[in-house]
Amino acid sequence: MTNELSWERPHLLLLGAGASKAAFLSGDAKGHELPVMANLVQVCSLSSLLHDAGLHDGHDDFESLYSDLCDKPEYGDLKQKVEGLIWSYFRRLEQPPAPTIYDLLVLSLRKKDVIATFNWDPFLVQSLVRTAHIHRGEAPRPLFLHGNVEIAYCPKCTKPTPVGRLHSVCRHCSNEFVPSTLLFPVRKKDYTTDHSIESAWADMKTGLHSAYMWTIFGYGAPKSDVDAIKLMKSAWGSKYDRNLEQLEIIDVKEEDELQATWDDFIHTHHYDTWKDIGNSRLLRHPRRGCEAFWSMSMDLRIPEERPVHPRMDWTELESVLGPLVDAEKGVLTHHRDKKPVR
Ligand SMILES: [Zn+2]
Fold first, then answer.
1. How far is the CA of 235 from the centre of ligand 1 (A)?
2. How many angstroms separate the CA atoms of 231 and 327, rounded?
3. Model pLDDT for residues 287-320, shown as the tens digit of each residue
4. Which terminus has fewer CB within 10 Å in the chain: N or C?
5. Has residue 339 been placed in a domain?
6. How close is the Cα of 161 to the center of ligand 1, in Å?
7. Helix, strand, or coil (residue 30)
8. Is residue 124 domain-shared with residue 269, that is, in the same domain?
9. What is the 176 CA–ligand 1 centroid distance (Å)?
10. Are residues 263 and 141 in the same domain?
11. How far does residue 137's CA lie from ligand 1's centre (Å)?
12. How close is the Cα of 157 to the center of ligand 1, in Å?
């Protein structure tokens, strides 16, 4: 990758189920638990439905159970019921009024950046909407790699829109928006059947190819995601060609394990691991992560930190981030002088 103006390249944030779990350890605003694949059957109350069909043997391996539903046409009705229950569960999740980790993630990145998520839950979309008074349109682009309950999309141009605009008309091509498809976990996932998911992956590959920094939060690269990992690897390319880029991995696992999981993507020592999102470069240098990393690694200068954290209220977030957004808007409305935005 070229090193010219690397700080202007995207910072890509990838979210897995662990991110939502970490953001809402005590559940959502009403105490609804955040399911992960290992407890989806139990949390979304699918046990009795599956048990009655003779499919549930007491083990909660949802991927295996769901794959059985897909393999046998006689389970068509049951499959629809299971999908409906899961959709309803995720759709009802909501955030408490005070700023959450999702709000911080959205506000810590800029318009040039990307947040790609494997999660079906509505938190990313909710945060993009409810932080608009601070980001004022300078928000990162969301990509829904497995679909999302809060999203509808135009079947022709694949432009996503909040699900509240379902059945209204796309202003680009006058087609009616349809609900996002959730990609349910079969053993062999196909990222090309659904138009909106295929489009999200095309954008993901472009984003990864050009990314200067890549933060992975709560995504464990499970073996069942072998096809997703392959797509990401093809976009990232050889780790030996990524000698400027930095990976940061936020996960409760130990560093050795994380390093081994992501070894194919890490150039020598160009990675950090954090158990606590609060220590991450993302939250220590909100909206200026790429500039800060460039300063440190290329100019050998310790950049000033302007951290945000989950205990801040909306006024405190505005006071830290508002001036940064102002500076970005100034840079965007004037001729670029090829200096990092400070
Ligand atoms: Zn359209």
1. 26
2. 35
3. 999 999 988 888 888 888 999 999 999 999 999 9
4. C
5. no
6. 10
7. coil
8. yes
9. 8
10. yes
11. 21
12. 4
pLDDT digits (tens, 9 = 90+) for 318-329: 999 999 999 999
Give domain status of residue 340, yes or no. Answer: no
Tokens matching residue 194: 């659904």
Domain extent for 164 = 149-181
Q: Which two tokens stand for residue 139?
A: 């928000």
Rounded to whole angstroms, the Cα distance separating 177 from 159 reads: 9
Radius of gyration in angstroms for the set of CA atoms belonging to the chain, rounded to a whole number? 20
- How many whole angstroms from 177 Cα to the centroid of ligand 1? 8
* Residue 231 resides in a domain: yes
Instruction: Quote the ligand 1 centre to 180 CA distance (angstroms).
Output: 14
Residue type, 127: S
DSSP state of 272: E
Reference 236, options 261, 205, 267; nearest CA is 205
CA of 129 to the centre of ligand 1 (A): 21
Ligand 1 centroid, distance to 178 Cα (angstroms): 11
Expressed in angstroms and rounded, the spacing between residue 37 Cα and the centre of ligand 1 is 33
Q: How far is the CA of 71 from the centre of ligand 1 (A)?
A: 33
Residue 3: predicted pLDDT: 54
Other residues' Cβ atoms within 10 Å of the Cβ of residue 209: 15
